[in-house]
Amino acid sequence: MTDPRTTVLIITHNRRPELLRTLDHLAELPERPRVIVTDNASTDGTAAAVTRHHPEVLLLCPGRNLGAVGRNLAMRHVRTPYVAFCDDDSWWAPGALPGAADLLDRHPAVGAVTARIVVEPDGTEDPIVTELRNSPIPGPSWLPGPVLGSFLAAATVLRADAFRAVGGFHPRLWLGGEEELLAADLAADGWWLTYADHLTVHHQPSVARDATLRRAHGIRNTLWFTWLRRPAGHALRRTLHLARTVPRDTASLHAFAEAAAALPWVLRERRVLPAEVESRLRLLEAAQRQSTARRYIG
After folding, report:
1. What span, in angstroms and rounded, lies between the C-alpha atoms of 65 and 38?
2. Do strands 192-203 and 90-92 pair parallel, antiparallel, or not at all (unpaired)?
3. For the segment 17-43, what is each residue's pLDDT rounded down to a tens digit?
4. Burial bucket for residue 210 (CB in 10 Å: 0-12, 13-18, 19+)
5. Greater confidence, 293 or 278?
6. Do 111 and 186 touch, CB atoms closer than 8 A?
7. Cα within 13 Å of Cα(16), Cβ side
8. Element (H, E) at 91
9. What tens digit of pLDDT does each residue of 84-115 get?
10. pLDDT at residue 170 above 80?
11. In this predicted structure, what is the pLDDT of residue 208?
12. Strand partners, 82
């Protein structure tokens, strides 16, 4: 039951046990996808362990921590029409990858398919699944599932050419909500993003994470995305809302300071989204204000 349509891309940094568990799960998939791992300068023996236990995996070692751009590096080695992102603490369920490829085959205007996320070891749905399932964004009747305004990289299969056409993940954002800008640019290029409830990805969150740093990056990246792509009035209101609602701590202060320091770059690269994409994002934001799903920012 091999399926040559999809390559799985993983970025990792100092999570050797979690990565090896993920690679074990992927190696057991009946569709036998090709897997590419970008080791973002791990110092815990990750590269040697992958080479020893999973020699079939293409291992890339750029020598520094590229963050999400490690996925861009891996994309240079992708020859399949579709690419599935995977975190080092998550893995795709049997049948999910060919199921997503089937949807992309049947619907050439769909650029990305996001799967249902099951949190391990308890096997419960991630709270964000309810939000994906009940997306308020309208779309054409032919779409195979709800329209999404963004996606979660660890649970999404994308059309490789669409990813390349918009430039992949922006190197400035590094990690922490980095999908939002890419998703908006895909939508601006005319691609639909959809959710597929019958596809599953498993996530067993690693304890090896710096939640404070990730939250700071999430706030910074939300500000940058807002300033880069949203209309001026909305960008101002969104900035003021974040200033009022994020935790009043050093991490938030650093996030705002770092975002503000990059204003010359923002002004050079600013490109407001088409009106139809902007309207989708406003519907999504209204729904998110009622959501209790885990996010990088408050």
Report:
1. 9
2. antiparallel
3. 999 999 999 999 999 999 999 999 999
4. exposed
5. 278
6. yes
7. 13
8. strand 90-92
9. 999 999 999 999 999 999 999 999 999 999 99
10. yes
11. 82
12. 6, 159
Which residue has tokens 């009622």? 290
Tokens 């964000």 belong to residue: 128
Alpha carbon distance 175, 191 (integer Å): 23
Structure tokens at 134: 């009940």
- Give me the DSSP letters along 161-225: HHHHHTTSS-TTT-SSSTHHHHHHHHHHTT-EEEEEEEEEEEE---S---HHHHHHHHHHHHHHH
Question: Which token pair is 21?
Answer: 């568990």
45 Cα distance to chain centroid: 26
Residue whose entry in the numeric block shows the structure tokens 């954002």: 173
pLDDT at 1 over 90: no
Our CA dihedral for 245, 249, 250, 255, rounded to 10 degrees, sits at -10
Burial status of residue 30 (CB atoms within 10 A of its CB: 0-12, 13-18, 19 or more): exposed
CA-based angle 8:12:15, to the nearest 5?
A: 125
Q: What is the pLDDT of residues 74-83, one digit of tens each?
A: 999 999 999 9
Instruction: For the chain, give the number of residues.
Output: 298
